Automatic annotation (TrEMBL):
<dbReference type="InterPro" id="IPR036388">
    <property type="entry name" value="WH-like_DNA-bd_sf"/>
</dbReference>
<dbReference type="InterPro" id="IPR052509">
    <property type="entry name" value="Metal_resp_DNA-bind_regulator"/>
</dbReference>
<feature type="domain" description="Transcription regulator PadR N-terminal">
    <location>
        <begin position="20"/>
        <end position="81"/>
    </location>
</feature>
<dbReference type="InterPro" id="IPR036390">
    <property type="entry name" value="WH_DNA-bd_sf"/>
</dbReference>
<protein>
    <submittedName>
        <fullName>PadR family transcriptional regulator</fullName>
    </submittedName>
</protein>
<dbReference type="InterPro" id="IPR005149">
    <property type="entry name" value="Tscrpt_reg_PadR_N"/>
</dbReference>
<dbReference type="Pfam" id="PF03551">
    <property type="entry name" value="PadR"/>
</dbReference>
Length: 104
């Protein structure tokens, strides 16, 4: 398996938000909903991240029909999410194993 750098929590939620087409404000709203308002992404953060994710090919614009610009995750972005889920599961599993005293 190819090793990827860990995603920041903000990028993780941006990518998750884009499994359906969304514009920046929609990403902010869904992230707050998913995290019970724990993660609040500012407009500057969102639009800077969108530019970076576009450059990496992890998201792409949806055909513009004159409304707010929407984006959707690409297959490469989905690969990054899948890797991150496995990485987070390993962190969780190791934490549970060690804190419960099952170090074998």
């Amino acid at each position: 398996m190819i090793q990827h750098p860990p995603l920041t929590e903000g990028v993780y939620y941006i990518l998750l938000s884009l499994y359906e087409p969304r514009h920046g404000y929609g990403i902010i709203q869904l992230t707050e909903q998913l995290t019970n308002d724990r993660v609040k992404l500012g407009a500057g953060t969102i639009y800077g991240a969108i530019k970076t994710l576009l450059d990496k090919g992890w998201i792409k614009p949806v055909d513009d029909d004159g409304r707010k610009k929407e984006y959707i995750i690409t297959s490469t972005g989905k690969e990054m999410i899948e890797y991150e889920i496995l990485r987070l599961k390993e962190l969780y599993d190791n934490g549970i194993r060690i804190t419960r005293g099952d170090n074998d």
